[in-house]
Amino acid sequence: MSEACNSCSAAGTCTTESCSTEPKLTDAQKASHIDKVIAVMSGKGGVGKSSVTSMLAVSLMRQGYKVGILDADITGPSIPKIFGVTGRAGVSKTGILASKSRDGIKVMSLNLMIETEDDPVILRGPLITQIVNQFYTEVIWGDLDYLLIDMPPGTGDVPITVFQSLPINGVVMVTSPQALANMVVRKAIKMVRNYEPPIYGMIENMAYVECPDCKKRIEIFGRPKGEEESKRNSIPFLGELPIDPALAELSDAGKVEDYQSPAFDQIAKRLAEQIRTNIGKNLA
Amino acid sequence: MSEACNSCSAAGTCTTESCSTEPKLTDAQKASHIDKVIAVMSGKGGVGKSSVTSMLAVSLMRQGYKVGILDADITGPSIPKIFGVTGRAGVSKTGILASKSRDGIKVMSLNLMIETEDDPVILRGPLITQIVNQFYTEVIWGDLDYLLIDMPPGTGDVPITVFQSLPINGVVMVTSPQALANMVVRKAIKMVRNYEPPIYGMIENMAYVECPDCKKRIEIFGRPKGEEESKRNSIPFLGELPIDPALAELSDAGKVEDYQSPAFDQIAKRLAEQIRTNIGKNLA
Fold first, then answer.
1. Are B156 and A245 a contacting pair at CB < 8 A?
2. How far off is chain A from B36, nearest CA to CA, in Å?
3. What is the pLDDT of residues A1-18, one digit of tens each?
4. Model confidence pLDDT, tens digit, residues A169-182
5. Closest Cβ opposite residue A209 in set B160, B218, B252
6. Which terminus, N or C, of chain B has the lesser number of Cβ atoms within 10 Å?
């Protein structure tokens, strides 16, 4: 996609042929205006993409922005559970209705489309990517300042489709201190660089655990190397986050909106600065 | 696949039409004899499938078995790094040569096919599953008692292909204490039950961290619930594992074969018992 597509609400449904003509929007797209689309990615599974996506959404919402989350992890969706959003998504003549969290964050996830939250989604790539596309084009997102995309692990079908078809403004990378994780995250960084969106920066999650008794900082996955890795990949380092049992507990209870994290507030500030810096710019 | 396929070395390359005729084996399959194929799965990313696969391989090797690992996580391969296996896989007229770890575990992974370990593999499902199939049919595994398959996260293309095309004898499920992880793991369990292999049992990884100073047991992802989850899903509970910084360090250094874990030795014993119990049996 060209940079011009970023401001075109037809992106995702257009073709090269249709580009010079009137863009064909779905009814859901006509009923939506999304200012910025940000992908939260890692390449590696289980480093906390969904947690970071959720904390980022909550942080932006607290700053007064209208926020939505598109859960693109179709076979392993976490977002509804983290926000305590249950029940099936509604449908109107115009499109699929995004569900709302307690505090008003809009959410779309495959787990809002199935009967029981632990029913498996046994689908191959073409159907999975079609669902991700429809979550963008057929969901009535309404007016959003930010739509965050919680990406699945890997550099396969879903990331390829997201970068080829959706108007992504930028990417947030999540890593953990393991050299193994950093290797896989570098794969994801190289993948993003095949496309156009800038990488706003890297967050190092699970950097340490604080012992609740003696307050020792335990580096369970080895010495944090987020800053070093960010430099190595020439992307801004946004900060490190500990593993916080309180976050796991609130996420399991569907109450992530009650979570307070001074460390994440700092990260969100740095990210906001990067988003401002990158407006209209393409670092790829 | 029918149960009879489990003992047929043509499984993975056969068709319904060819089944009643002489099985067509590749040269690599003719040069291999694999006794048992075990998939290590989770559904959720980052709960330690690759660590568990590696520890299981080392444990079986120490008991005198011949072991191989097929790294089916094509876009996020960890196995070569964990075992310190570098360089490109060799090729002969007969097929692709499995690489060998220091202590003799055979390994095949996409990271043994690319120039640089952090080059991304940006491929859609059909190509990814073709690679997984070829890792079974075109690799000269030689004589193996156990071939372990390190599965990628999710219930998409690769798990579908593995269960449809490879002669899997049984599955080991890996989970972590987060309710979120358990939800996704239940999806994977339900998926496996659509196919034939029995689930040998569940391992709860990342159950706690021990403070190196005050020895407090810190349950960073909440109260372990592996035993409860195993009962809920009617599968044997194999045991819990802590997060051990020593394992992360050895894995990052490619020296997992130096790792000693009494907790895992117990798990391996229980698993061996389950494998014995399930010989010729189909719990699905």
1. no
2. 25
3. 555 565 566 677 766 665
4. 999 999 999 999 99
5. B218
6. C
Q: Which of A122, A180, A191 sits opposite B194 (nearest CB)?
A: A122
Q: Using alpha carbons, list the distances in angstroms from residue A206 to A24, A175, A247, B182, B278.
A: 44, 8, 12, 19, 38
Enter the ipTM.
Answer: 0.90
Q: Where does the pLDDT of residue B9 fall: very low under 50, low under 70, confident under 90, or very high at 90 and above?
A: low
A&B contacts, CB < 8 Å? 204
Residue B158, chain A, CB below 8 Å: the answer is no
Q: Is A243 on the interface with B (CB under 8 A)?
A: yes
Task: Give the residue from chain B lying closest to A125, CA to CA.
Answer: B125
**Mean pLDDT for chain B overall:** 92
Closest chain B residue to A175, measured at CA: B46
